[in-house]
Amino acid sequence: MSADPKPLYQEVILDHNKKPRNYGTLEHASHQAEGLNPLCGDHIYVALNVEGDAVHSIAFHGESCAICKASASMMTMAVKGKTPAEAEQLVHAFVDMATGRDQTPGAPAAPALPGMARLSVFSGIRDLPMRVKCAILPWHTLQAALNSQTSVTTEAQADPMQAPMGDA
Predict the structure, then answer these.
(1) Domains of the chain and CATH, by start
(2) For residues 107 and 112, what is the distance between their CA atoms, to the nearest angstrom?
(3) Which of 44, 77, 34 is nearest to 58 (CA)?
(4) Of 38, 108, 113, 129, whose Cβ has the fewest other Cβ atoms within 10 Å?
Protein backbone atom coordinates (compact mmCIF):
# COMPACT_ATOMS: atom_id res chain seq x y z
CA MET A 1 0.00 0.00 0.00
CA SER A 2 1.42 3.41 -0.95
CA ALA A 3 1.28 6.49 1.21
CA ASP A 4 -0.92 9.43 0.28
CA PRO A 5 1.32 11.88 -1.65
CA LYS A 6 -0.86 14.94 -0.87
CA PRO A 7 0.81 15.86 2.45
CA LEU A 8 4.27 15.72 0.84
CA TYR A 9 3.02 17.80 -2.10
CA GLN A 10 1.56 20.40 0.26
CA GLU A 11 4.72 20.47 2.40
CA VAL A 12 7.00 20.96 -0.63
CA ILE A 13 4.77 23.66 -2.15
CA LEU A 14 4.58 25.57 1.15
CA ASP A 15 8.34 25.30 1.73
CA HIS A 16 9.29 26.53 -1.74
CA ASN A 17 6.64 29.27 -1.62
CA LYS A 18 7.87 30.61 1.73
CA LYS A 19 11.58 30.18 0.93
CA PRO A 20 11.94 30.10 -2.85
CA ARG A 21 15.37 29.07 -4.05
CA ASN A 22 17.15 31.28 -6.61
CA TYR A 23 14.52 34.01 -6.23
CA GLY A 24 15.63 37.44 -7.39
CA THR A 25 17.19 39.09 -10.39
CA LEU A 26 20.27 38.02 -12.27
CA GLU A 27 22.41 40.80 -13.69
CA HIS A 28 23.96 40.36 -17.12
CA ALA A 29 21.94 37.25 -17.95
CA SER A 30 22.81 35.52 -21.21
CA HIS A 31 19.20 34.32 -21.57
CA GLN A 32 15.95 35.71 -20.18
CA ALA A 33 12.21 35.61 -20.77
CA GLU A 34 8.94 36.77 -19.28
CA GLY A 35 6.03 34.40 -18.62
CA LEU A 36 2.39 35.36 -18.14
CA ASN A 37 -0.65 33.34 -17.11
CA PRO A 38 -3.53 35.83 -17.49
CA LEU A 39 -6.06 33.37 -16.04
CA CYS A 40 -4.66 33.56 -12.51
CA GLY A 41 -2.29 36.53 -12.82
CA ASP A 42 1.04 34.71 -12.60
CA HIS A 43 3.71 36.96 -14.09
CA ILE A 44 7.30 35.78 -13.79
CA TYR A 45 10.71 36.44 -15.24
CA VAL A 46 13.38 33.78 -15.67
CA ALA A 47 17.02 34.71 -16.29
CA LEU A 48 20.03 32.47 -16.64
CA ASN A 49 23.68 32.52 -17.53
CA VAL A 50 24.92 29.77 -19.79
CA GLU A 51 28.69 29.52 -19.55
CA GLY A 52 30.48 26.94 -21.63
CA ASP A 53 27.85 24.28 -22.09
CA ALA A 54 26.09 24.53 -18.75
CA VAL A 55 23.54 26.64 -16.90
CA HIS A 56 25.91 28.38 -14.52
CA SER A 57 23.33 30.49 -12.70
CA ILE A 58 19.57 30.93 -12.86
CA ALA A 59 17.03 33.11 -11.07
CA PHE A 60 13.37 34.01 -11.24
CA HIS A 61 11.18 36.75 -9.84
CA GLY A 62 7.72 38.18 -10.23
CA GLU A 63 4.24 37.88 -8.81
CA SER A 64 2.73 34.42 -8.79
CA CYS A 65 0.67 31.93 -6.84
CA ALA A 66 2.26 29.42 -4.50
CA ILE A 67 2.20 26.61 -7.08
CA CYS A 68 3.93 28.71 -9.74
CA LYS A 69 6.53 30.01 -7.29
CA ALA A 70 7.27 26.53 -5.92
CA SER A 71 7.53 25.10 -9.42
CA ALA A 72 9.92 27.89 -10.45
CA SER A 73 12.00 27.39 -7.33
CA MET A 74 12.33 23.65 -7.90
CA MET A 75 12.97 24.21 -11.61
CA THR A 76 15.95 26.47 -10.91
CA MET A 77 17.44 23.84 -8.64
CA ALA A 78 16.87 21.09 -11.20
CA VAL A 79 18.48 22.84 -14.18
CA LYS A 80 21.47 24.50 -12.53
CA GLY A 81 24.60 22.80 -13.83
CA LYS A 82 22.75 21.10 -16.70
CA THR A 83 23.46 21.69 -20.38
CA PRO A 84 20.78 23.63 -22.29
CA ALA A 85 19.80 20.35 -24.01
CA GLU A 86 19.40 18.61 -20.64
CA ALA A 87 17.36 21.57 -19.36
CA GLU A 88 15.07 21.27 -22.41
CA GLN A 89 14.65 17.55 -21.70
CA LEU A 90 13.60 18.38 -18.14
CA VAL A 91 11.11 20.95 -19.49
CA HIS A 92 9.48 18.31 -21.67
CA ALA A 93 9.49 15.66 -18.93
CA PHE A 94 8.01 18.03 -16.35
CA VAL A 95 5.28 19.31 -18.67
CA ASP A 96 4.40 15.76 -19.74
CA MET A 97 4.18 14.72 -16.09
CA ALA A 98 2.15 17.76 -14.98
CA THR A 99 -0.31 17.52 -17.87
CA GLY A 100 -0.68 13.74 -17.76
CA ARG A 101 0.80 13.26 -21.23
CA ASP A 102 3.17 10.73 -19.70
CA GLN A 103 0.11 8.64 -18.75
CA THR A 104 -1.35 8.47 -22.27
CA PRO A 105 -2.04 4.84 -23.19
CA GLY A 106 0.39 3.66 -25.86
CA ALA A 107 2.78 6.55 -25.27
CA PRO A 108 6.42 5.51 -25.02
CA ALA A 109 7.81 5.50 -21.52
CA ALA A 110 9.80 8.64 -20.79
CA PRO A 111 13.44 8.05 -19.91
CA ALA A 112 14.26 8.58 -16.26
CA LEU A 113 16.02 11.92 -16.07
CA PRO A 114 18.22 13.07 -13.19
CA GLY A 115 16.21 15.58 -11.18
CA MET A 116 12.75 14.26 -12.04
CA ALA A 117 12.34 12.24 -8.85
CA ARG A 118 12.16 15.39 -6.71
CA LEU A 119 9.84 17.03 -9.20
CA SER A 120 7.40 14.12 -9.04
CA VAL A 121 5.58 15.83 -6.16
CA PHE A 122 3.90 17.81 -8.95
CA SER A 123 2.52 14.69 -10.66
CA GLY A 124 -0.85 15.10 -8.93
CA ILE A 125 -1.32 18.58 -10.41
CA ARG A 126 -2.76 16.91 -13.53
CA ASP A 127 -5.88 16.25 -11.43
CA LEU A 128 -6.30 20.02 -10.91
CA PRO A 129 -6.70 21.36 -14.48
CA MET A 130 -7.04 24.98 -13.37
CA ARG A 131 -3.63 24.77 -11.65
CA VAL A 132 -1.63 22.94 -14.32
CA LYS A 133 -0.81 26.19 -16.12
CA CYS A 134 0.48 27.63 -12.85
CA ALA A 135 2.91 24.74 -12.45
CA ILE A 136 4.16 24.69 -16.04
CA LEU A 137 4.50 28.45 -16.63
CA PRO A 138 8.05 28.66 -15.21
CA TRP A 139 9.11 25.72 -17.37
CA HIS A 140 7.74 27.27 -20.54
CA THR A 141 9.38 30.55 -19.58
CA LEU A 142 12.71 28.73 -19.20
CA GLN A 143 12.21 27.11 -22.59
CA ALA A 144 11.46 30.52 -24.13
CA ALA A 145 14.64 31.95 -22.60
CA LEU A 146 16.74 29.05 -23.88
CA ASN A 147 15.30 29.60 -27.36
CA SER A 148 15.88 33.38 -27.33
CA GLN A 149 12.17 34.23 -27.10
CA THR A 150 11.43 37.22 -24.93
CA SER A 151 8.05 36.09 -23.64
CA VAL A 152 5.54 33.28 -23.36
CA THR A 153 1.89 33.26 -22.32
CA THR A 154 -0.80 30.75 -21.54
CA GLU A 155 -3.37 32.86 -23.41
CA ALA A 156 -5.41 31.50 -26.36
CA GLN A 157 -3.29 30.40 -29.36
CA ALA A 158 -0.04 30.77 -27.43
CA ASP A 159 -1.30 28.45 -24.68
CA PRO A 160 1.44 25.84 -24.15
CA MET A 161 -1.22 23.38 -22.98
CA GLN A 162 -2.84 23.42 -26.42
CA ALA A 163 0.22 23.48 -28.68
CA PRO A 164 2.81 20.72 -28.89
CA MET A 165 6.19 21.75 -27.56
CA GLY A 166 9.13 22.14 -29.94
CA ASP A 167 11.91 19.63 -30.24
CA ALA A 168 14.44 19.49 -27.44
Answers:
(1) 6-158 (3.90.1010.10)
(2) 15
(3) 77
(4) 108
